[in-house]
Amino acid sequence: MNHISPVIWQFLVKWLTNFALFPPEASKIAPQMDALYFFMVLVSLIGLTIVVLLITSFSILYSKGRHPVAVQVEGSTLLEATWTIIPLGLFLVMFVWGALIYFRVYTPPANAMNIYVVGKQWMWKAEHPGGQHEINALHIPTGQPIQLTLISQDVFHSFSIPAFRVKREAIPGRYTTVWFEATTPGTYHLFCTQYCGTNHSQMIGDIVVLTPEDFRKWLASSTSGASLAQNGERLFASLSCAACHNARPDARGPSLAGVYGAKLALSAGGTVTADDAYLREAILNPSQHVTQGYAPIMPTYQGQVSEEGVIALVEYIKNLNSDYRIQQTLNTTDLLPESAGQAPPANQVPVSKGTVKP
Amino acid sequence: MSTNTIVSLPDQSTARIPKDNFITRENGLLSWLLTGDHKRIAILYLISLSFFFFIGGALAGLIRLELLTPQTDLMATDTYNKVFTMHGVIMIFFFLVPSVPATLGNFLIPMMIGAKDLALPKINLLSWYLYVAGGILAIYTMAAGGVDTGWTFTTPLSTHYVNTNVLTTGLAAFIAGFSSIFTGLNFIVTIHKMRAPGMTWFRLPLFVWSHYAASILMVLATPVVAIALVLIILERTIGIGVFDPTKGGDPLLFQHLFWFYSHPAVYIMILPGMGVISEVISTFSRKRVFGYTAVAFSSVAIAVFGFFVWAHHMFIMGISNYAVLVFSLLTMLVAVPSAIKIFNWTFTLYKGSITFETPMLYAFGFLGLFTIGGMTGVFLGTAGTDIHLTETYFIVAHFHFVMVGGMLMAFLAGIHFWWPKITGRMYPEKISQLAAVVTFIGFNLTFFPQFILGTLGMPRRYASYPPEFQVLNVFSTAGATILGVGYLLPVLYLIWSLKYGEIAGNNPWQATGLEWQTQSPPLTENFAVMPIMDHEAYDYEWLEHQQKLAGKAAEVTSAG
C-alpha cells in the first residue's frame, strides 16, 4: 500500500476504528431514547426515499425527450388528504412517544439520591449529600437513581451527558432538576452545551460511573469531614438565623423544623409548597415570601451567601426534623456538628466566615 | 429546438438588448442611490447582500479551518467565539432574512402582479439605506474587536459578562430589523392594492403568496426582537434589570422574547425560497403547480403556526413540562404544511415535460435537502429526543440543511432563473450546471457528518473538542472547501455573462408569469401597456396561444 499517502492511510485507520453512529448507552433511559431516535431515522429514510424515488422516476418518465407535451393535471383532494394525514399521524406518534420520554427524564423518582451541581464560568462544582465535592467530575454509582439539582452562579450553562442522553440547563436564579440511573461503569463525557463565554469549550469533565461498592469506597476516601447539611448548620449558626427562627413562643420568624415539603400559607395570600426552590427564594428574597402571621422583617441574604452556601442551608433545613438542633445553634456561631448517633469526624475544620467555602 | 431544453432565444445575430430599459433610462451614481425604482433597489440589495454573504462565508471558512484539529491551534478561544458570533449575525440578519425578498421579491412582485412599482417606493429605498446602515455598523463592530455573545445574545452573558461590542451589534440588528419591517409592509400594501385588472388572489403566482405570508411575519414578529434588543442595550447601559435575577428579573424572559421573533424568522427566511421553488418547478416541467390552493394556504398556515412554536427552543431550560407538551404538539403541526409542499412540488413533475436547466437542478437539490432539514426538525420538536440532540452539532446540521440547503439553493435557483429577466442576458448553462452539482456535493459533505457528530454528543460553539470527533470534522471541513468553490463559480460566470452572455429576449424559459411577457431588462415602468390578467396562473395553454397569435402577427407584418 505504498502508493497511498500515509496521511490518508492514518485517516482511514482512525475513521474505521472510531466509527460510531451514536454514543454508548450507559443509562436506563438511553435505550428508550435511542429506540425513538431510530424510529424517527427510519421514518425519515422512508420519507426521503419516497421523495427521491418519485423525483427520479418522474424525471426519467416525463423528461422532455420522452414526454414532449405536458398533460395538465389538476390537484387531487384524495392525494392532498393522503399526504396531510399520513405525516400528521406519524408526527403525532413521535410527539406522544417523545413526550412520554421527556416526562420520564424530568420526573425524578422518590428514592433518588440528590446531588447539587453549581455551574460557573468555566467549571462544574458538584456537592454530594455526604459533603464530598468535586470539580469538573461527577462520581456516581450504578443501579441508583440520581437526581441533580442544578443552578448557575453567573450565566446559562447546560449540563450534558451524551452517554446518558440527558441534558439540563443550569440557570442563574433558579433550580432545575434532572435525573438518571447509570447502568454501565465507565468514564463518560460531561459537556457544557450552552454557550457561556471564553472558555465554553473547556467547561468539560468526566462522569465516572462506579459499581455501588467502588462508589462507597470513593465516598469514604473523598470525604471533606462534614456532610452538606452539617456545613449548612454551621452557616445557619454563623448567620445567626436562629435569632429569629428559634421556635420559641415569641420567635420573630417561623420555626423551620419539618418545614421542607410542607404547604405554607403566605401573608400575601395563597399557599406554596416549601421545596428547594422556595427555600432558596425565601433566603434571598425574603420580603416576597412572608409566611402568614409574621412581619416582613427578614433582611435579604443576596450577595452574602454564595450559591453553594444556599445549597448547604437548604440541605440543612431539608434534614431538620426537630427544634432541638436549632436551639443548639443559638449560643454559638462556631458550632461543631454533632449528629445524633454519629461521632464528629476528627479532622473537623471550623468555619466562622459568613460563606461556606467547601 | 433541442429536445432536452426549453430555452428559446432570439436570433443572436440580430437580437439587441432593448435601448430603453430600467438600467439605461438614467445614468450616474446618484440616479441609483436616489432611485425609487424597485428593480434598481433590488440590484442595490443584490450587490450589498453578496458582499455580506462573502464576509459571512469567509468567517465560516475560518470556523471550519479551526475545527480541522481537536485543539485550538488556529486562533484563541475568544477569537473563535467572535468568529462564529459574527458569522451568525451577518448570515442571519444581513443575508438570509433579506436574501430572496429584498432582491427577487423586490424586483418581481410588482412585475408579477402587473404593477408599475411597489406601493411605497421611497420607503423601499429607505429600507435599503437602513439595511446598509445596519451593515456598516456590523462591519464597524468587527473592526472594533467583534462581539462574542453568539448570535442569540443570551442573557445574562450578553448583559453582564462580556466586554465586547454588544451595543453596536444589537443596534446593527435592530436597524436591519426595521429594514425588514418596511420591506414586509411594502409587500403587503402592494399585494393588496396594486394588482392588475383580473389579477385575483387565486391567480397570483405562488411566489407572491409565499412573500405575502413572509411579510406578515416580518411586520408582526420583527418588532419583538427589536424590543428584546433595546432591553439588552438598556440593561447594559443603565441596568434596568428586566433579565437580571438579582433584581427580580427573569433571564428566561429574554429567551421568550428572542425566540418569539427568531423562530418566525426561520419562516421569514424559508418561505420566499419556497416561492422560488414553485415558479421554477412549474416552468421546467411545463405544468401548473399541483394543488395550487394547498400550496398557497400551506404558506399561510406556516406563517400562522410559526408564531406559536417559539418555546421549542427552550425544552431543556426549565419551562413547565406542560408548556413543553403544548409547544411540542404545535411544532408537529407546523411540520405538516412543509410536508404538503414537498409532495405537491414532487407531483408537479407528474406527466410534465421536464428539462434540467440550472434553476431546476438547484430546485431538485432544494427538495432533497429541505426534506432532510425538515425531518430532522421533527427530531428536535419531539420533546424526548430534543433533550439529547439540542445544543449539539445535530442542531447546527439541521438549520444549515434548512437555511443553506433549502434557502440558499432556492436563492441560487431564483438568481439563475430570473437572471435573463434582470440583465437581459443568459448565464452560461454548462458551467452553471456544474456549479449546482458541486454545491450539492460540497453541501452534503459539509453538513451531513454534523448530524452524526451531534448524535455522538459534540456540543456546538466549541473551539476544541475530544479527539474522537476529529474524523467527521475533517470530512466537514473538506466539504466546506468544495462548497466554497461551488459559491465562487456563479459569481465569476454571472459577472462574465453581463457582457458576454447570450441575448435572452423576453421569455427564454417560455414561462407564464406576467414578468416574462415584457422586455428584458424591463422598462422602468415595467409594462408598456398595463397588462390584464385574463387567465389562471401557470396557464401554459394560454401562453402557447399567445405565441401563436404573435407568430401570425409577425407573418402579417413581414408579408405586408
Overview of the molecule:
- The complex is a heterodimer of chains A (358) and B (560).
- Chain A has helices at 6-18, 29-61, 77-106, 212-221, 228-238, 276-284, 307-318, 324-328; strands at 113-120, 123-127, 133-135, 137-141, 146-152, 157-161, 166-170, 176-180, 186-192, 205-210, 263-265, 271-273.
- With 358 residues, chain A is of the alpha+beta class.
- Residues 333-358 of chain A have low confidence and may be disordered.
- Chain B is mainly alpha-helical.
- Chain B has one domain (29-559): Cytochrome C Oxidase, Chain A (Up-down Bundle), CATH 1.20.210.10.
- Helix content of chain B is 67%, strand content 0%.
- Chain B is built from 17 helices and no strands.
- Chain B has helices at 29-33, 38-66, 77-96, 99-112, 121-143, 157-161, 166-193, 206-238, 251-285, 292-306, 321-348, 358-381, 383-389, 393-423, 429-456, 470-500, 540-559.
- Chain B is globular and about 85 Å long.
- The mean pLDDT of chain B is 93.
- At the A-B interface, helix 1, helix 2, helix 3, strand 7 and strand 9 of A face helix 3, helix 6, helix 9, helix 10 and helix 11 of B.
Query: What low-confidence regions of chain B span 5 or more consecutive residues with pLDDT below 50?
Result: none
Count of domains of chain A: 3
Our count of domains of chain B comes out at 1
> What overall geometry of chain B do the principal axes of the alpha carbons give?
globular
The CATH architecture assignment of chain B turns out to be: Up-down Bundle
Largest sheet of chain B: none
Q: Ends of chain A: how far apart?
A: 58 Å
Counting H and I runs of at least 4 residues, what is the number of helices of chain B? 17
Q: Strand arrangement, largest sheet of chain A? A: 3-2-1-5-8
Average residue-wise pLDDT of chain B: 93
| Fraction in helix of chain B | 55-70%
The CATH topology of the largest domain in chain A is given as Immunoglobulin-like
Q: Would you count the extended β strands of chain B for me? A: 0
Order of helices and strands of chain A: HHHEEEEEEEEEEHHEEHHH
At CATH level 2, the architecture of the largest domain in chain A is Sandwich
What share of the residues of chain A does DSSP label as strand, in percent? 15-25%
Shape of chain A: elongated
Task: Report the average pLDDT across residues of chain A.
Answer: 87
Structural class of chain B: mainly alpha
